[in-house]
Amino acid sequence: MEVLLALTIGGLVLVAATALLITISQAWANRPATRDAFDAHVNGVAHFLAALLDDASLPDQPNSKDEGEIVDLKNPIGFSDIDDPLVSFFLKEAPPLLFNPHGKSVKVRAYLYPEEGDALSLLWYSELQELEKDEKGNLQPVEEDALMKTIISPFCKEVYYCYYGEEDDEEDDIKTWEISSDLLESEKKDGFRIPEFMKLVFSWDDEDLERTISLPIKRLSSSGIEPEPQ
């Protein structure tokens, strides 16, 4: 009798374990494919922007040095001075995503354009287009509609700017991180400070994912030696 009872209980436990395994397997097989697609999209956008900024370089200018700021803050054509500038950088050759119907996408000036609560896009133009200098001496397309726009992510709803320390901090000073939804104004010059990082927040179906993008602010000369101040 005891042996029969033990076999019965063992059989029930085995059936329950099998049912649980089947339930877990079905839940995994029927999981929402869009969830995986969202994760893949966020990772893809982060890798794309990181690679894009890694390829950024200084514009080709006569009598220019090999060192300087890779990332700048500028207003493209159609943006007034009351608007905050956009993170801008130069690409000697743009990726295929930046398709130019008028020719090759080379010598491209690009701007990261976070449309508040809407999407993250790239505004850009090629120096092979017809250009003219604006009031600040920056080259811009002659016509506003010549500035092209490429959507990078419709799920990027928020952008934050990450700063490390203050402008007047010495090398030995203790520095802290400050994260702001707006660019911080510079205390040393007119305009804004260039952040060290950008934090992108992607939203879908009540779920948020964050990714941080490093901004290569300055690139040294090919010798790797920073010139001494005059």
Architecture overview:
The structure is a single chain. This protein has 230 residues and is α+β, with helices and mostly antiparallel strands. It has one domain (33-219). Helix content is 22%, strand content 32%. The strands form four sheets. The chain has a five-stranded antiparallel sheet, with helices on one face. The relative contact order is 0.15.
Q: Can you lay out the helices and strands and say which pair or pack?
A:
Blueprint: H1 2-29, H2 33-54, E1 68-69, E2 72-74, E3 86-93, E4 106-115, E5 119-126, E6 131-133, E7 139-141, E8 148-153, E9 156-164, E10 177-180, E11 197-204, E12 207-214, E13 218-219
Antiparallel strand pairs: 1-13, 2-3, 3-4, 4-5, 5-8, 6-7, 9-10, 9-11, 11-12
Compact summary:
The chain is α+β, with helices and mostly antiparallel strands and 230 residues long.
